[in-house]
Design a protein that fits this description.
The protein is α+β, with helices and mostly antiparallel strands. The chain has helices at residues 34-50, 61-72, 80-90, 97-116, 124-145, 154-177, 188-207, 217-233, 235-251, 257-272, 278-295, 306-317, 320-334, 345-366, 372-397, 454-474, 478-492, 567-571, 585-589, 595-603, 609-624; strands spanning 2-8, 11-15, 413-422, 431-438, 442-450, 499-507, 512-518, 523-527, 530-534, 551-555, 561-565, 632-641.
Amino acid sequence: MGIVSVKGSGEMKISGVKALNITGKVREGFREHVWVLQIVMIALIAFSVTRVSLMATFYPCSIAMMAASLRKSTLNLYLMFPVVISFVLLIPGSENSTYFISSLAAMLLCTAFFMATTKKNYSDFSRMIVCAFVSLATNVAYFIATDTVYMINGSLILLDAVTVCALYFVFHVFFALFDWKREFVSSPESGVSAISAVWTLTFTGIFQEAEGMLSGVPVLSVLFGVLVIGYKLGVYAGVTAAAVSSATLFLTGMIISSHALIIICAGVAAGLFSGLNKHTTALCFTAVCLVFGLTCSGSLGAFPKWPPLASGILFVLMPSSLSFALTKFLRRLAHTQEGISDIRTDDILKILERYRKCFGQLGSLYNLGLDKRSIVSHQFKGMERVIDKLEEDIKTAGNGRITPVSFINDTRYRIETQASGYARSGSISGDSYITRRISGNKYLMILCDGMGKGEAASLESNLAVKTLSNLIDAGFETELALHTLNSILLLKSKEEIFSTVDIGIFDCEKAVLKLYKIGAASTYIKRGNRVDAVKMATLPMGIVDGLKIDYVSMKLQDGDQIIMVSDGITDSGRYAGSSVKCAGAEDAAHSADSKWLDGLIANVKSKDPGTMADLIVSAAIENYGLRERDDLTVISAVVRSK
């Protein structure tokens, strides 16, 4: 059992053996070497896509990739190394050596041209025209130089040039997705198309010459990619990814036309079943692929059965950390600069800025001490914070485009809660609580214990719970919301009215729990058989002006349990007959009255939050026996990873 004492906002000290890893400063992760991984990944992609031959004849990917990468930065010249190595290792056969050599020459010429003209800011259209012209010229020049003009195939040469232009656009959008310093400004459809095309080309380049079972890996990669995109972004994105991927596979000769139709149907299925859990979605997706594969096999070969099965299994077994990372990456597709109305975002931000300054000035004007004007001051300051948040959201969204896909429920973690209680005055409890999802992928838990008992206490605690919940969800900082409520309680009546407040805010993306405790009982965190109590020595709400507010922040993980209790639960321990001796001063602060609760929580093996809450309330009632009981309330929560 660990006992937590608070020294300041967000700072904690834990006593006890093997205390949980709790800290007031949450680590954001190891990001310092991300750029190295990105360079390695893009180099591997460059090596793979260079190997891809379209129509078993020409190699357009290297030209387009080098032109698009140099458009972003001349530092991307390093991609020349994997591209040239790939060309050297290819050693193509005599039947397509002509286009292989001309593609290599075109890539070198384009790279030299764009490096020599770096000071000229050519548009993307101009670069596409340059690439197409160089491709045409090198092909024709090679035939002339080798006295094989009679072998020129005009259709193939034009197709090569057109394909280079299309691939330039694909790689241009793809590199924009990895430019984290800038917002992604293309449409979501362009982003999905670029991701699907590059994903397909990468695996095709690796396994294009493979035989046997390995020859089906490109189909497996396409099905898996379509399933992920359709599940994350919906039907339209799933169909787009399937159409682009299947067309790419068809041009590389990996599939026939009927197989392309099957993949498109699979994209529809991935989007249609995206509202279900991932196991059901994977099962339905696999079934669609197999059923259409049996009915639309085509005369040149049956659709392979193992890639759909393998893609469904991989999707189910995909770690939650990878799924979360993919979600964050795909969010960039939604943050575009294509607005849906004629109102300029700059004008909106200017208006909001005027309102923000106005509310800030009014908040300072009314901040004159303990009277009704202090409440107004808190409200004005709260509105200033709300507008700050709104401005930030608009800027992040990229000139105000409304996100076409909802990511609200697609977080790395979720939380399950249940509550149990007992009212000492008939059916009316002086305790009130709320558990709900709020904006910003947060989950809010509030437990308040009103002064006294019966209807009066219930009204006060209900006021506290609803006020805090609405203010926090509206965008008020938690500290400001608590100060506002404290001022309301101080001025609401000439009589003394106070309430304890216990707030837990769980971040469903980072698995970080923030606890604010204003005169509240301990909160218990259970991990495995280990139980730690979080306690703060603070006055209840409505006692003094200028309330000091501290909070505790802790990193949780899958399976951790959170137990919030009212004072009636811990007070019942004085009647439990426990005779626990405290070894030190900090242990003494955590009285023997609550030691029975530590042991009870540790001994409950169930991960069901309802079972935990019911057992604690039942044990507290048993502790009181025939004595008058206080109101009893328990909120039990379990952290789950997706």
